[in-house]
Design brief:
The protein is of the alpha+beta class. It contains seven helices and 14 strands. The chain has one domain. The strands form three sheets. A nine-stranded antiparallel β-sheet has the order 3-13-4-5-1-6-7-8-9.
Length: 232
C-alpha cells in the first residue's frame, strides 16, 4: 500500500455554513490557515482540518474522526452528521501505507449499510453490512484459506496470494467511485486540484472511542512529512 487519506465525503449535502459545521462537530478554537489542494489536504497534519466541495460532495479532511465511523454503534460524530444531512450518503475513508491501514464506511438514510477496515497487525477488524456493488469485482477474486482468512488471487499476482490488508486500498479506491465517478487512484485531476479551506484547531470536543484508541494509537508516532501519494 502507498496512499494516505483521512477524509469524510458527504454526497449531495444540504447547504450549510462550513465553519459553523466544523464548530458543531466539536472543532474548538478554529483559526483560519492557508488553503490546500485536495491532493495535500486528503491526509492533513494533526490539529488541521480542511473543508470544501467537489462536484456534489462536501469533503472534510481531518485526522482521527474518520476512524469513528468504523464502530458498530452510532458515534456522536455520525449522529451529528446524520441530523444535519439526513438525506445525504456519508462516507468515511482511511488509508495509511505505513501499517497497511485501510477502511471505509457508508451511511445511507441515516443507517450504516457497510463498514470494513483492517491493518497489517490487526487483520480485518471491522466487517459490517453486505458487500456494495463497488466491492464485488475484487471480492470475486478471493477465497477463504484453511484458517478461515480471506486471500486474494489477482491477475497481476497469479502465484502470490494476497492478504486483505494488501488489497485494502483497492477497496477504498473502488468505494470512491460512488462519489467521484472514478476510482480514487484514477480520478480526474480536477479532484486533486480542488482547493479546500483550511483551519487549525485546539481540540475536538468529543470522547475518543475505545476502538479508535486501540487500533490507531500507533498513528501518533508516524512520520507525516512524507507525501500521501504513491512512493514506489
Amino acid at each position: 500500500m502507498g496512499w494516505k487519506a483521512s477524509t469524510i465525503i458527504i454526497n449531495r449535502p444540504t447547504k450549510v455554513d462550513n465553519e459553523e459545521l466544523l464548530k458543531t462537530l466539536g472543532f474548538d478554537n478554529l483559526t483560519k490557515i492557508e488553503d490546500e489542494l485536495f491532493e495535500n489536504a486528503i491526509n492533513p497534519d494533526d490539529n488541521k482540518v480542511y473543508i470544501g466541495t467537489y462536484k456534489n460532495n462536501l469533503l472534510i479532511c481531518t485526522q482521527g474522526i474518520p476512524m469513528q465511523f468504523f464502530e458498530e454503534h452510532e458515534t456522536q460524530t455520525e449522529k451529528t452528521l446524520n441530523q444535519i444531512f439526513p438525506n445525504s450518503e456519508i462516507c468515511s475513508i482511511v488509508l495509511h501505507s505505513t501499517i497497511n491501514l485501510w477502511g471505509y464506511s457508508v451511511i445511507q438514510n441515516r443507517q450504516k449499510i457497510r463498514a470494513r477496515a483492517g491493518s497489517a497487525d490487526d487483520g480485518t477488524f471491522v466487517e459490517i453490512g453486505e458487500p456494495l456493488e463497488e466491492e464485488k469485482e475484487l471480492l470475486s477474486k478471493s477465497k477463504l484459506d484453511d484458517n478461515g482468512n480471506r486471500i486474494y488471487l489477482l491477475d497481476n499476482f497469479p502465484d502470490e496470494p494476497l492478504n486483505e490488508d494488501q488489497v485494502g486500498e483497492i477497496f477504498v479506491f473502488s468505494i470512491c467511485k460512488r462519489y467521484f465517478g472514478d476510482e480514487l487512484d484514477s480520478a480526474d485531476d480536477l479532484l486533486f486540484e480542488t482547493t479546500l479551506t483550511g483551519y487549525k484547531y485546539g481540540k475536538v470536543k468529543q470522547t475518543t472511542s475505545t476502538q479508535q484508541t486501540n487500533k490507531t494509537g500507533s498513528l501518533d508516532k508516524i512520520d507525516k512529512t512524507k507525501p500521501w501519494w504513491k512512493f514506489w
